[in-house]
Specification:
It is built from eight helices and ten strands. It has about 300 residues and is α/β, with parallel strands linked by helices. The chain has two domains: about 170 residues, P-loop containing nucleotide triphosphate hydrolases (Rossmann fold); about 70 residues, no CATH class. The strands form two sheets. Strands 6-7-8-3-9-10 form a six-stranded mixed sheet, sandwiched between helices. The longest helix has 17 residues. It is globular. It starts with 10 loop residues before the first helix and ends in a 27-residue tail after the last helix. Adenosine-5'-diphosphate binds next to strand 1, strand 2 and helix 2.
């Protein structure tokens, strides 16, 4: 086994993190707790979660299903209120939805009766921008997501990946301080998903935006993130805020690099404890057989 640790950072990567931490804090989450359910049967979805995100940082949040990832996004979006603790965006308490937070979810949320361009213009128009200025704004974002040629199409004429690119353009056209993405590529096939990840890095590099991206795909998190917030389930607590030691710019060749593999092993330890030692739950599958004797396949 390679002696490489996920903590081994090259000097260039360490320098990147030193610079990143000097940038202003955009999002500050302090002792955030969210309880659902009844008094007699409470569900502690998030327990004392604290972290900070710096300007133009890309943070991924990973964790097993049910560990509170979507709850965290809904709190950041202002769609839920914390039970205790605080959420500050640019130093101001989040107390409801607002245009300073853009959102992209897994389900397609475009207006089906509007063209691609009208979908992207919708937010700026709602803010009172003139039609001409909103059109210019939309053109710029559609160009960044490489959909200029589809400006006059309707959502149903687009592939899943293209719809999500429109959703990203639409969110960014509102000039949010932070882009919240909850498993945005979860419904896409593997090839489209990989393409969307490359697109997103390109968009992030060229737009003045900070990203909080939820995923349960560990490779996706390592490929995209500066830092990865690992949540442990029941109750949802911060296990670690891990600095990804993989240099930028990222490429798919890095999936096999020692830095990448060491980070992956570290995340696996948190999320699937025991899977490395051969005691994975596959061993616990029932020994029921519904085949003919002698029909062995492996
Ligand atoms: N509105 C709700 N009412 C009651 N329980 C909820 C509600 N939303 C989420 N939960 C519970 O909170 C926990 C975290 O859920 P969620 O944030 O959706 O997890 P994840 O997105 O990581 O899969 C789960 O146990 C879930 O059942
Ligand atoms: Mg979820």
């Amino acid at each position: 086994m390679s002696p490489f640790s996920y903590r081994n950072q090259s000097e260039a990567v360490a320098e990147r993190f030193r610079k990143l931490k000097q940038r202003p804090v955009v999002l500050e989450v302090k002792d955030l707790t969210k309880r659902f359910g009844t008094e007699s049967n409470p569900v502690l979805a998030l327990d004392n979660v604290s972290f900070e995100v710096h300007r133009r940082e890309f943070v991924c949040v990973v964790g097993a299903s049910g560990c509170g990832k979507s709850t965290l996004v809904r709190l950041l979006a202002g769609l839920e209120q914390p039970t205790s603790g605080s959420l500050l965006l640019d130093g101001k308490t989040v107390d409801g939805p607002g245009a300073d937070r853009g959102m992209v979810f897994q389900g397609y949320t475009l207006f089906p009766w509007l063209t691609v361009k009208d979908n992207v213009m919708f937010g700026p128009r709602m803010k009172g921008m003139s039609r001409a200025a909103a059109r210019e704004e939309a053109d710029q974002w559609l160009s960044l997501v490489s959909l200029d040629a589809f400006a006059d199409s309707y959502p149903h004429q687009l592939s899943g990946g293209m719809k999500q690119r429109v959703a990203i353009a639409r969110a960014l056209a509102n000039s949010p301080r932070i882009l919240l993405m909850d498993e945005p590529f979860g419904a896409l096939d593997a090839q489209t998903r990989a393409q969307m990840q490359r697109h997103l890095l390109h968009i992030w590099k060229n737009a003045d935006v900070t990203i909080v991206f939820i995923t349960h795909d560990l490779d996706e998190a390592i490929y995209l993130a500066d830092r990865i917030l690992v949540l442990k389930p029941r109750p949802g607590r911060v296990a670690e805020l891990l600095e990804v030691p993989v240099p930028r710019p990222r490429s798919t060749e890095q999936f096999q690099s020692p830095e990448f593999l060491a980070t992956r092993r570290r995340l696996e330890e948190w999320i699937h404890p025991g899977s490395e030692t051969g005691t994975s739950h596959v061993d616990e599958l029932p020994r029921l057989r519904l085949t003919q004797v002698g029909d062995e396949v492996e």
